[in-house]
Write a structure and sequence with these properties.
Blueprint lengths: L14 E5 L4 H12 L3 E6 L2 H13 L3 E6 L5 H11 L4 E4 L14 H29 L3 E6 L12 H21 L4 E8 L5 H7 L2 H10 L9 H11 L10 E4 L7
Parallel strand pairs: 1-2, 1-4, 2-3, 4-5, 5-6, 6-7
Helix pairs in contact: 1-8, 3-4, 4-5
């Protein structure tokens, strides 16, 4: 009798690029990929935090390098990827949130959020894909979106707009890159205990609203996204592209 074999979740021999890697979900993604055997290049703007993360991953037995880079600088990002790539895996976790009622949104806040969450993500994903195609390699490109890329929320019109757009961008790129065996997906977490998430969780009425929406009854932890990241990066998800993996505790189920 033939028994099928589970595809490997291991990532030895793969190179991963993780943005926003000095804290929060990006840090968790970098640790998870390194634990799975990938050589991880950590990207963030602040060098001290980046170096500390790199050193901690190395001390734990992982392989990591640090690249101080502002991904909103499109030309510098393209040059860095061209010189240091190709990367088999991308986790684009850099993100920005500036919440306000829609009637009070400032144009500067709108531009700042879109610059990071959409424009930088677009050109970063494009450049990593360009490097893979030139090298004739397959790959897995993961954009960290949000459950707010699928629903709305109070004071989040700009943030939701950026994440809904990221979802559409991901689907379109998945179609274009599929002939090259390059997969493109989004990871969509609920509220996670990160420095960014704690800004909202610190407001009692907002925390109560969040817990009322999460069916599992708790806020997410960084560890909750680490397994899904490895799944999307590995051959275990070889037939998964152009879609979203929701890690939302059931928020979007109703």
């Amino acid at each position: 009798m033939f028994l099928p074999k589970t595809p490997s979740f291991r990532l030895e021999g793969r190179r991963a690029l993780v943005t926003g890697a000095s804290s929060g979900i990006g840090l968790g993604a970098a640790v998870a990929l390194a634990e799975a055997g990938a050589a991880v290049t950590l990207v963030a703007r602040k060098r001290p935090e980046l170096d500390a993360t790199r050193d901690a991953i190395r001390a734990a037995g992982g392989e990591a390098d640090a690249l101080a880079l502002d991904i909103t600088d499109i030309s510098a990002t393209a040059a860095a990827i061209a010189s240091q790539g190709p990367f088999d895996i991308l986790v684009n976790s850099a993100g920005l949130a500036r919440h306000s009622p829609a009637l009070q949104t400032h144009e500067t806040d709108y531009d700042a959020v879109m610059q990071v969450n959409l424009k930088a993500a677009y050109f970063l994903t494009r450049e990593v894909a360009r490097g893979l195609i030139a090298a004739g390699k397959s790959g897995s490109l993961i954009n960290v979106s949000s459950q707010m890329g699928h629903v709305g929320g109070p004071d989040r019109a700009v943030y939701c707009a950026s994440k809904h757009a990221l979802e559409g961008m991901t689907k379109a790129m998945a179609l274009e890159f599929a002939p090259h065996n390059i997969r493109v997906n989004t990871l969509c977490p609920t509220f996670i205990r990160t420095p960014l998430g704690e800004q909202t969780l610190a407001i009692p009425e907002r925390k109560a609203w969040i817990l009322s929406k999460i069916k599992l009854g708790r806020v997410g932890e960084i560890a909750d996204v680490m397994g899904p990241i490895v799944f999307l990066a590995s051959e275990a998800s070889a037939m998964v592209t152009g879609t979203s993996l929701l890690v939302d505790g059931g928020w979007t189920a109703d």
